[in-house]
Amino acid sequence: YFTQITMLFPEEATWLELAKSKDVDVVPVATSSLNQTVDGYQFVEKSAGRAQGVSLPYLEDTGVVYNGSMKVGNNVTADKSIREALNVGINRTEIVNSVFSGHAKPEFTGVDTRDYANNQSKVADGNVEQAKQILAQGGWTDTDGDGIVEKNGTKASFDLYYPPDYLDRQSLSTVFAEQAKQLGIEVKLVGADWDTIYANMYSSAALMQQTSPDPYKSIYYGAQYIYASFSKYQYTGYLQKFNVNKESGSLYSHEYMANIRAAASESKHTYEAYLDAGILNSAKTFVIPVFNN
């Protein structure tokens, strides 16, 4: 058994060199090193329980600004035919093979590996011709021959923000843009830090990942995101899940709730957290929304 465990949180670019130095016993494998071997180390493959995907704004740009400076909406990605075309046109298996050397599985919903996954959401993807038909039926055509479809004078073009310090997300964004171009959609890549990504994620596409291999960054940036996104107008658990505060600037849209069992499970977790912290009997202020009619 172990008498001491020392945990390191190195940058991804140093993982392989750490293994070669023999200074660590266990080290993650970067996507660029998946097919490399290091003497004295055994490659062990485990499910990471995380999913990567492209987040597309689904609201139109109507001039709404959230939290004073964050633009909301994108007239290209808000078009249903754009999102449907990308869904069936992007070849997820090709991405798995080219970016992750086959050490991953295609993801369709972000929760494919969970018990509550909806298998009916999976589609037959990689169908370029079907994607082009969807775009044409939605009114998107290439009238000037530049390879990018347009509709009512608007090019099917949008920015995709990604964190460049993670090679897998940089590579995934690149392959996604290349595949989208085959459909007639231009994806302009923007490498940026997380502060910039969060500031633009409501008006541009963003390469997102559920969970992170770096606990420090998960806590630090997660806390920043929660504070910036929820503290002013969505300051209760209910308002975070169901945004009914019209002052937020993103009524009904800036919310997160997909678990129908959340009312019971989150109440239980909150109770246990208060109990463990010793504040169960302290005074609390309840903010309860009241609806007319």
Walk me through what this model shows:
With 293 residues, this protein is of the alpha/beta class. The chain is 33% helix and 10% strand. The protein is built from nine helices and eight strands. The chain has helices at 15-21, 80-89, 92-99, 128-137, 167-183, 194-200, 215-230, 237-241, 262-277, and strands at residues 52-55, 65-66, 70-71, 150-151, 154-155, 157-162, 186-191, 205-209. The strands form three sheets. It has a four-stranded mixed β-sheet with strand order 1-8-6-7, sandwiched between helices. Strands 2-3 form a two-stranded antiparallel ribbon. The protein has a two-stranded antiparallel ribbon with strand order 4-5. The longest helix has 17 residues, at 167-183. It is globular and about 70 Å long. The N and C termini lie far apart (64 Å). The model has no long low-confidence stretch (mean pLDDT 88).
User: Could you describe the largest sheet, including whether it forms a barrel?
Assistant: 4 strands, mixed
Runs in which pLDDT lies below 50 for 5 or more consecutive residues are none
State the helicity in percent bands: 25-40%
How many angstroms does the end-to-end distance come to? Answer: 64 Å
Radius of gyration: 22 Å
Helical element count? Answer: 9
Q: State the order of secondary-structure elements, H for helix, E for strand.
A: HEEEHHHEEEHEHEHHH
The average pLDDT is 88
Note the beta-strand portion: 5-15%
Lateral arrangement of strands in the main beta sheet: 1-8-6-7
Name the shape in a single word: globular
Structural class: alpha/beta
Structure summary, number of beta strands: 8
